[in-house]
Write a structure and sequence with these properties.
170 residues, disordered N terminus, mainly alpha, 7 helices
Length: 170
C-alpha cells in the first residue's frame, strides 16, 4: 500500500503540472472485484481534496484562494468523480494484471499488448478529463493567480529538466 507521503507527492506534482488540481486515470470488466478509489487514491475522497492533501493546501495558500474558489474547485472535482473514478479503477486493475503477469514463468506478448492498449485508452480519456477540469479551474482564478500558476509551472518544469539532465549525465 502506498504511503500518504508518496500519494500526496504524486498528486502535488500533477497539480502543479496541469495548472492546479488535476486528476488522472472505462469501467471494470464484469466479474472483477471492484477496487475502491480510496484504496489507491485516498486524497480523492468526496469533499476531501483540500483537507487531505498537503500540496493542495500549499497551493491554495500560495495562490491565496478564497473559500468560495476552494468550494468551487471541490465542486468541479466532485462533478467529474463519476467519470474519472472508473477510469482510475481500470488503470489500477490493469497495472495489477501486468504485475501478476510479470510474476509468472511465461511471457504472453499478445496479452501484454491487449492490456497496454486498454491502459492507453483509459489514460487518453483521463487526460481529456484532467484538461477539462484544469480549464474549468483556471477560469475561476484571478489574473494574479493565473500569473502565479504560470510561474510555478515554469519553476517545476525547469527543476524537472535539470533533474533529468543530471540523471542522464550520471
Amino acid at each position: 500500500m502506498k504511503s500518504h507521503f508518496s500519494t500526496c507527492k504524486i498528486f502535488g506534482l500533477l497539480v502543479v503540472f496541469v495548472l492546479i488540481f488535476t486528476l488522472a486515470f472505462g469501467p471494470l470488466s464484469s466479474g472483477v472485484q471492484a477496487i475502491t478509489i480510496e484504496d489507491e487514491f485516498p486524497l480523492l475522497e468526496a469533499g476531501g481534496y483540500f483537507s487531505k492533501c498537503r500540496w493542495a493546501r500549499i497551493l491554495a495558500y500560495i495562490l491565496e484562494l478564497t473559500d468560495t474558489q476552494k468550494q468551487e474547485i471541490q465542486s468541479i472535482i466532485d462533478s467529474e468523480r463519476s467519470t474519472f473514478e472508473p477510469l482510475i479503477q481500470k488503470v489500477v486493475y490493469l497495472r495489477r494484471q501486468l504485475f501478476e503477469m510479470n510474476q509468472s514463468n511465461t511471457f504472453d506478448e499478445v496479452a501484454v499488448r491487449e492490456i497496454a492498449s486498454q491502459q492507453s485508452e483509459a489514460i487518453a480519456e483521463l487526460i481529456v478529463i484532467k484538461n477539462r477540469i484544469s480549464f474549468r479551474v483556471f477560469e475561476l482564478l484571478t489574473a494574479e493567480q493565473k500569473n502565479e500558476v504560470e510561474r510555478l509551472r515554469n519553476r517545476v518544469e525547469n527543476r524537472l529538466r535539470n533533474c533529468l539532465a543530471q540523471n542522464l549525465m550520471n
